[in-house]
UniProtKB/TrEMBL annotation:
Pfam families: F-box, FBA_3. This is F-box domain-containing protein. Transmembrane segments: none annotated. Residues 22-62 form the F-box domain. It comes from Brassica campestris (Field mustard).
Length: 386
């Protein structure tokens, strides 16, 4: 009788996976240090890697302690241009454009930005789309009822559940619908209760709460107020504006709270900031900061024009106020004002290419006119839709 081969009768060993070698928590800590492009490749390696990266727990871990990027949107004549730039760690006075994105044929003023995701409506306002600036992937959300236009749309993030949600107002009446991204769910109607309102364009998401400006008048001519939407519980609350309403303002995060900052710099170099101290009691705290007299020496052109052609656009995680030119420049830059030290620094942004177009009147090519629509200084990468 021939001897039995050693391979026969021996149980086949199970191939070890990454979870057998390392705890899942440790794997997440390793994965969170990787860029989104690398995570996209790991998804193709194994089903286990894909399940870890696409999980809500990893989403929460990944978004913690990520280095922010500069996120520019410039408006051209017919479309919008998007740039993302990374701040240099060795040289804090320089930033390099990491990616130039395809032009968007949309009204970028109505776009919603969060963690590098851009939410906007189609040209006919019948569909809502989400673009991931890290993966350059565009996702079209399910359609509403036929003939129902999208009036407003906001992107929010629930940090506890680790999910993104899109809130939309559809139709001529204030009907709100919401959808959770990434779980295959569909649109569902949200009851606003006693807070019937019509949203405006200004909005921001802070710690799982979506704030946006609104009014009760259908023609958008009434007194403005702030709507507070809890992304997790999907509930609405109304917050009264401060008595001294700031015109030409923007919503920013200041010390973890909602703040309204005046974009315009006064002739004396002062800027006004209203901080929401208590949403229940509608309590706002007014802060006034004065820029150092030397700040105009950092900008290009005449110092007298600095007040007119620069505006505040954001407050970063370090508490610095972000000041930027109102139009793109060949040598573009961003200013950061530290209110605690009363100091200002200039960061040169390398790699922004000014578009060239043919001037039929003058018969030669010249730099295209591009105005700044948005600049966010603390945008992080998002693994959503990988």
């Amino acid at each position: 009788m021939e001897p039995t081969p050693p391979s026969l009768g021996v149980r086949k060993r199970r191939k070890k996976t990454i979870s057998d070698l390392l705890p899942i928590d440790l794997v997440m800590q390793i994965f969170k240090r990787l860029p989104v492009k690398t995570l996209a490749r790991l998804i193709c390696v194994s089903k286990l890697c894909a399940s870890i990266i696409r999980s809500r727990d990893f989403m929460k871990v990944f978004l913690t302690n990520r280095h922010g990027r500069l996120f520019f949107t410039f408006k051209r004549y017919k479309d919008s241009i998007l740039f993302t730039a990374s701040l240099q760690t060795l040289n804090p006075c320089e930033a390099s454009v990491a990616m130039t994105h395809p032009a968007f044929d949309v009204d970028a003023k109505n776009c919603s930005y969060l963690h590098g995701l851009i939410c906007y409506a189609s040209a006919c306002a019948s569909r809502v789309l989400v673009y991931n600036s890290s993966t350059r992937k565009l996702t079209t959300l399910p359609i509403f009822q036929p003939g129902t236009p999208v009036r407003n749309h906001f992107l929010g993030y629930d940090g506890i559940g680790g999910v993104y949600k899109v809130l939309c107002r559809t139709g001529p009446n204030p009907v709100f619908q919401i959808m959770t991204l990434g779980d295959g769910s569909s649109w569902k109607t949200v009851n606003v209760g006693q807070y019937s309102h019509f949203p405006l364009k200004k909005h921001i998401c802070i710690d799982g709460v979506l704030y946006y400006e609104a009014c009760a008048d259908k023609n958008l001519k009434g007194t403005a107020f702030i709507m507070r939407f809890d992304v997790r519980s999907e509930s609405f609350e109304r917050v009264k504006m401060s008595g001294d309403n700031v015109k030409c303002s923007a919503m920013v995060t200041y010390e973890g709270k909602l703040a309204i900052i005046s974009k315009v710099i006064s002739a004396d170099g002062s800027v006004v900031l209203w901080v929401l101290e208590d949403a229940v009691k509608h309590k706002w705290l007014k802060k006034v900061f004065v820029l150092p007299n030397s700040w105009t020496s950092l900008v290009q052109g005449q110092s007298t024009a600095a007040y007119w052609f620069h505006r505040f656009v954001d407050v970063n995680d370090a508490g610095e106020f972000v000041l930027a030119p109102s139009s793109v420049r060949i040598r573009h830059y961003v200013l950061f004002y530290d209110p605690k030290r009363n100091s200002m620094r200039k960061v040169a942004v390398n790699g922004i290419k000014v578009p060239i177009r043919y001037d039929s009147n003058r018969r030669f090519n010249r730099p295209d006119s591009c105005s700044l629509l948005h600049l966010f200084s603390s945008q992080v990468e998002s693994p959503m839709f990988l």
